[in-house]
Amino acid sequence: MKELDELNEVVDSLDGELNQINDLNELQQKRANYLGKKGPLAQIMAGMKNLTNDARRELGMATNNVKNKLEAMFEAKRKALEEAIVNQKLEKETIDVTLPGVSFSTGGIHPLYQTVMELEDLYIGMGYSVAEGPEIETDEFCFEKLNLPKGHPARDMQDTFYINPELLLRSQTSPVQVRTMLEKKGEPIKIICPGKVYRRDSDDATHSHQFMQCEGLVLGTDITMADLKGALLEMAKKMFDKDRQIRLRPSFFPFTEPSVEVDVSCGMCNGKGCPTCKGTGWIEILGAGMVNDNVLRMSGYDPEKIQGYAFGIGVERIAMLKNRIDDIRNFYTNDIRFLNQFKEVK
Ligand code: DAH
Fold first, then answer.
1. Is 249 exposed, middle or buried (0-12, 13-18, 19+ CB in 10 A)?
2. How far apart are CA 32 and CA 27, in angstroms?
3. pLDDT above 90: residue 6
4. CA of 300: how far to CAs of 185, 226, 253, in Å?
5. Among 171, 172, 196, 286, which is best to mutate for testing ligand 1, by the most ligand atoms less than 8 A from CB?
6. Burial tier of 133 (Cβ tally within 10 Å: 0-12, 13-18, 19+)
7. Which terminus of the chain faces fewer neighbouring Cβ atoms within 10 Å, N or C?
8. d(CA 214, ligand 1 centre) in Å
9. What is the structure's pLDDT at 48?
10. DSSP string, 268-315
11. What does pLDDT average to over the chain?
C-alpha cells in the first residue's frame, strides 16, 4: 500500500526537520503543520474511504501509530528545547563566589583638609574653639583694624585682590581676630581660624594665588610670650614628631609687638642641615607675636587689663613638610594620582 510508504516518509521528513528547529514557537508551528487538519496524516486518512475494510483498518492502525510517534517526537523535542533554555539561563546567572569583589572608587579627604582637621583636633584639645570669617572681607577688618591704615607700607607685604576700594578677597585670616574681638567685647578669647586666603602672587612651586592659613588668637590676663612659645612647641611636636624643636626669630607684623617668625627644626636632617632646610637645619612655618596694643584698642579691648598672643600658620607649609610634597600646586590641580596617596582606604 503506497499510503504506508507515505506514512514512513512523513516520519523521516519530520526527523530531519526537527533537527533544524531551535525555538519553541517554530516547534509549535511545525506541530500544527504535521498534525493539523491540513497535515499529511489528515490527508492520508481522508483517502481511506475508498479502501477495503481490511485495508482501512490496517492503514488506520498504522496512521495512529505514526501519529503517536510524531507526538512523541514533538514532545521529546519540546523537552529538549526547554531544557536548553533553562540551562542557558542558569549558565548566565551563575555566580562564582570565589571571584574577588569588584572594587568601586570612593573619595578621600583632601590632604590639605586632613592637615586642617589635625590642627583643629590638637588646638581643640588645648581648649581653643574654631572660629570662621568670610573670604570676601572689608579693607577695614583685613587691614585698618589690624594696625595697617590705608597707605601703610606694610600693605605691600600682601598683594591683595580688591573688589572695590572697601572690599577685597582676604589676604590673611587675621581679620577673624578683629571680628571675634568685636563680638566678644572685652572678654577673654581662645580661638583658631582655619580658612582660605588670596594673594596676587604668580603661581610657582612655593606660591599660590589662593592658599590656606590657620590663625590663632588668645587673649586673657597674664598671658606672656612664654605661653605663645609653649603653644607653638606643642603644635610642632604633635604635627611633626616629639623630637622637633622650635626657634623664634624677631620679625615685624603691624598687628603684633613684639613679632616673631617661627622655625621648626628640619625633620629630614634632624637639624644638621640639608637641601630641604637649605643647610640651616630650620624651616619657617609661621608668623606670631603679642597682640599690638593698637589692635586691642581698635576692637574695644583695654591693653592694661587684657592682652595675649596671635599666630598665623601656613597650612600648605605644614602639609608639605609632613608629607614631603615639593610643589604647592599639587594641592590644587586635582590629579587623582596625587590625591590617591592620601586616602586612608586605597
Ligand atoms: N597674617 C600674617 C600673614 O599672612 C601671618 C601672621 C603673623 C598672623 C603674625 C598672625 C600673627 O596672627 O600674629 O603673613
1. exposed
2. 9
3. no
4. 6, 25, 20
5. 172
6. buried
7. C
8. 9
9. 83
10. TTTTS--TTTTTSSEEEEEEEEEEPHHHHHHTT--TTT-EEEEEEEEH
11. 92
- Please report the pLDDT score of residue 157 as a whole number: 75
| Cα gap 179→239, rounded to integer Å | 28
H/E stretch holding 27: helix 24-35
User: Cα of 256 to ligand 1 centre, how many Å?
Assistant: 8
Cα–Cα distance measured from residue 272 to residue 125, given in angstroms and rounded to the nearest whole number: 32
Which of 253, 257, 307, 313 to probe ligand 1 with, by most ligand atoms within 8 A of CB? 253
Taking CA atoms only, the protein residue closest to ligand 1 atom 7 is 287
- The residue contributing the CA closest to ligand 1 atom 6 is 312
Given a cut of 70, is residue 245 above it in pLDDT? Answer: yes
**Best-predicted range by mean pLDDT among 103-107, 221-225, 241-245, 270-274?**
221-225
Of 72, 75, 78, 70, nearest to 41 by C-alpha is 70
If you compute the radius of gyration of the chain from its CA atoms, what whole number of angstroms results?
Answer: 44
- Residue whose CA lies nearest to ligand 1 atom number 8: 312
**∠ CA 26-31-34 to the nearest 5 degrees?**
125
Phi and psi (nearest 5°) for 288? Answer: -160, 180
Cα 4 to ligand 1 centre (Å)? 112
**Would you tell me how many other CB atoms lie within 10 Å of the CB of residue 208?**
19
Ligand 1 environment, Cβ below 6 A: 172, 174, 215, 253, 255-256, 287-289, 310-312
Distance 309 CA to ligand 1 centre (A): 11
Give me the residues paired with residue 307 across strands.
Answer: 220
